[in-house]
Amino acid sequence: MIKTFYELLDGKKEKTAIFYKDEKISYKQLKEKIEERCDELKDIVSKRDKIIIKVSNTPKAIIDIYAIDKLGCVIIPVNPLATEKEIKEITEDVKANIIISENEIKRISDEKINNLPEDASLIFYTSGTTGKPKMIIHTKESIITPCYEEGKVYGIKENDIIGGTPSLSFTYGFGAFAIIPFLFGASVSLFIQRILIDNADPPIKSVVQGTKILETIEKHKITVFYSIPTTYRTLLEILLRMPEKYDLNSLRLLVTAGEPMGILLYNKLKNILPKVEILEHLGCTESFHAIVSNTPKNIRPGSIGKEIPCYKVKIFDENGDECLPNVKGNFAYKGPSGKYLKKTEENEWMFTGDIAYKDEEGYFWFVSRNDDLIKTAGYLVSPHEIENILMEHQAVLEVAVVGIPDPWINQRIKAFIVLKDDFKPSDKLKDTLIKFLVPLLPEYKIPSEIEFVDSIPKNKRGKILRKRLRS
């Protein structure tokens, strides 16, 4: 196992490591820039300092991360859009020593509080969609192992150019753009993407950002693209309107995570990009990257695939017994994983909080987050099933389904819908959408209420904030 991420860059020299806008940085140049940054930082930072770094998807972020790691410090990547309150909470929680932003290095504490394991390398925080974000401590082993196994089953080679939209401040983006490319001697295309999940912006900005993404894929000849369903929907809308404008022949893989893609979006993307394999996977902050995934030439549309080789996965019922095939239960995995700082007892199986099932052929199927399940009139209903069907209607651009408290049936089902530009909100359209669902869903799964909205609230990872919709 490597001691520093810097070792991943050995032996490549003149090959391009990073594409960024019009810039190309070779492996040799990247190593030189990291060494220069180490020289700049060595009198400021001390070994085992805990350093918060605000990371945009830029070469500077990669250089800072690799330099800080080379100097023996612990890295806490945070989103550059994080608020002062969020930064303050993380600083106090982790007992950070230094904060590095785009143009500033600020030491906030000289105190050496040894509250981390000796092999701690990176600290990430969970998304906090169900409560306060939790600190997850990763080691080189819990980072490199799943990234290597994922890259291997995806067939990553030296001639691949890996790009996409997730932030380096999340494990999904960090693994895809800061680890996997260099593990396999490939290249990374870096792109700053913020607007598609910024609900305060007018929808037109999503289209503008989407065109920039497509232009980057074409310009850098990206072969493997990581993103989320929200982005893929925007790209699809652009490609349907302008199918000949962009040359996307370089693409061989689209990888998706964060929210279920749904078979409808999968099929639409396949129709417009028939030669591209679309790989849906499931991972979490604790696992760092994919636990289960579809893989090239081994795809079951709608599923989240099979186990990545370094993991074992089981579905458990409420009594702790393993479920039979096609029986829904709690998704749990065993394998490389980050650790919670304040959790003392170790369980053999790590539960992700997801409800899923495994079919007879070994494919796993996501049903819902445990806390997203709607409990109505004695039934358990997955919001994603209803969302996927509503997305098939020509008027629907985005949808989120939640359970609203009801004194008689515990929860009633409510759908929040963003309409496409050609459609206007009306009671008649609500009735049309309900009638659309009637032959496709049992009565208890049909929403009792539809509300048209301008946008669906999401967190910085693009995940729907269902708690906000329920309140």
Distance between the ends: 47 Å
Task: Specify the CATH homologous superfamily of the largest domain.
Answer: ANL, N-terminal domain
The count of DSSP E runs of length 2 or more, i.e. the number of strands, is 25
Shape: globular
Provide the low-confidence segments as ranges. Answer: 195-204
Beta-strand portion reads 25-35%
Structural class: alpha/beta
What is the topology, as strand order, of the major beta sheet? Answer: 2-1-10-9-11-12-13-14-15
Largest sheet: 9 strands, mixed
SS summary, helix count: 11
CATH architecture of the largest domain: 3-Layer(aba) Sandwich
Q: Can you identify the CATH class of the largest domain? A: Alpha Beta
Mean pLDDT: 91
CATH fold call of the largest domain: Rossmann fold
Gyration radius (Cα, Å) is 22 Å
Q: How helical, in percent, are the residues?
A: 25-40%
Number of domains: 2
What does this protein look like?
- This protein has 471 residues and is of the alpha/beta class.
- The protein folds into two domains: 1-371, Rossmann fold; 374-470, ANL, C-terminal domain (GMP Synthetase, Chain A, domain 3).
- The protein is 28% helix and 26% strand.
- The chain contains eleven helices and 25 strands.
- The protein has helices at 27-41, 59-70, 84-94, 140-153, 171-183, 203-220, 229-241, 263-272, 383-390, 427-437, 466-470; strands spanning 16-20, 23-26, 50-54, 74-78, 98-100, 105-107, 122-125, 135-138, 161-164, 187-190, 224-227, 253-256, 277-283, 290-293, 306-307, 312-316, 329-334, 339-340, 350-358, 364-369, 374-376, 379-381, 396-406, 410-419, 449-452.
- It has a nine-stranded mixed β-sheet, with helices on both faces. A four-stranded mixed β-sheet has the order 4-3-5-6, sandwiched between helices.
- Helix 4 crosses helix 5, helix 6 crosses helix 7 (229-241) and helix 7 packs across helix 8 (263-272).
- The protein is globular.
- The model is unreliable at 195-204 (pLDDT under 50).
